[in-house]
């Protein structure tokens, strides 16, 4: 089994789209204005819902959450420094945490206050 979807919440989907598409460079798969953004990742999906709009029935089952979640996206180990430079270049406060020989994680917040992490799969021995 593997995670197929990761879901985060953002009150301002325009800011979320600018961040996830622009800063992180993710490709938008689909969206419903004011309700949700769907990004295709490598083998899974990242879903970002507006909490108020997504609580109402629609084409997608209702979701009831709030900003303040966490997601970790996998990056190649050798790109950690490059990503740290990129994130800091966008004015983000980045915390770099070492997991011993397993690699390092980069922690930062998205505009909605969700905590994001970029890390190699090796932090979990994968």
Automatic annotation (TrEMBL):
Residues 2-121 form the VOC domain. Pfam families: Glyoxalase. The keyword Coiled coil does not apply. One of its GO terms (molecular function) is lyase activity. It comes from the Bacteria. InterPro entries: Glyas_Bleomycin-R_OHBP_Dase, Glyas_Fos-R_dOase_dom, GlyoxalaseI/FosfomycinResist, VOC_core. PROSITE patterns: VOC. The keyword Cell wall biogenesis/degradation does not apply. SUPFAM superfamilies: Glyoxalase/Bleomycin resistance protein/Dihydroxybiphenyl dioxygenase. Gene3D superfamilies: 2,3-Dihydroxybiphenyl 1,2-Dioxygenase, domain 1. Keywords: Lyase. This is Lactoylglutathione lyase, putative.
